[in-house]
Amino acid sequence: MTGIEATGLTKRFGNVLAVDGLSFRVDPGEVVGLLGANGAGKTTTMKMLLGLLTPTGGHVRIGGRPVREVDRRVLGYVPQGLGLYGDLTVAENLEFAAQAFGVTTPSLDEAGMGAIADRRVSRISLGLRRRVAFVVARCHDPSVLILDEPTSGVGPLGRARLWETIHEMADHGAAVLVSTHYMDEAEECD
């Protein structure tokens, strides 16, 4: 079964053509990268895949189904802005997401973040926030993971850890789509 399939995906904003006839697929267990400069249409593409934007043309299928019919629990998403609540603690962010998906809250100790569980997200480093966003996006064990520039602004050690997590997800059967503007990160993809 295909994880993600985009066929002829097109998006216009007035006279601006943001995405032009893009076709690709991401199979379970595979990491595919969208490489491009800022403004190249990577985020727009991801938002169409998630059903957050309606394509002007083409279509998207997740797990063989039109995106509008997909159970959202299949999807894990880390947006550029991370989607975390800065005024909540790390543990509260994770608990909120787990409850929203109807799953048991995963252990922050097992994720190597027990020491920061009680810290407000707004008071931790960007690298740690990105790691928290990964844990939140994975808390319901999605089969499709969409990551929008997940390592942007993170140091070399943090980037390496995040790529290890990405590969672990794929090794467990997730279809993973990652956007980046770094060539060395594109080389991490299948």
Topology at a glance:
Blueprint: E1 4-13, E2 16-26, E3 31-35, H1 42-49, E4 57-62, E5 65-66, E6 75-78, H2 90-101, H3 126-138, E7 144-148, H4 156-171, E8 175-180, H5 183-186
Parallel strand pairs: 3-8, 6-7, 7-8
Antiparallel strand pairs: 1-2, 1-4, 4-5
Mean pLDDT: 87
- Output the helix-strand order: EEEHEEEHHEHEH
Question: SS-based structural class?
Answer: alpha/beta
Largest sheet: 4 strands, antiparallel
User: Per the principal axes of the C-alpha atoms, what is the gross shape?
Assistant: globular
Q: Which consecutive residue ranges, at least 5 long each, have pLDDT under 50?
A: none
Based on DSSP secondary structure assignment, what is the total number of beta strands? 8
Query: Order of strands in the sheet with the most strands?
Result: 2-1-4-5
Beta-strand portion reads 25-35%
Radius of gyration (CA) equals 16 Å
**Termini, distance in Å?**
18 Å
Helix segment tally: 5
Q: Helical proportion? A: 25-40%
